[in-house]
Description:
Blueprint: H1 3-12, H2 16-43, H3 48-59
Amino acid sequence: MSTIEQIEAAILKLPPSDYQKLVQWLLDVEYQRWSEQLEQDIIGGKLDTLAEEALADFEVGQFN
């Protein structure tokens, strides 16, 4: 049995309250990683084109 399979099996045995804590923790970790990646993408200029398009649309009154 691989480590991931052991983790999966252990998760299935958790009581509901511990399971909910785990789910919340995973969501928090995912949000933090997403936030860090977004910040790096902004710093790296990966979103510049999208920002420019959004500002251009805003200036001509296109808000959809």
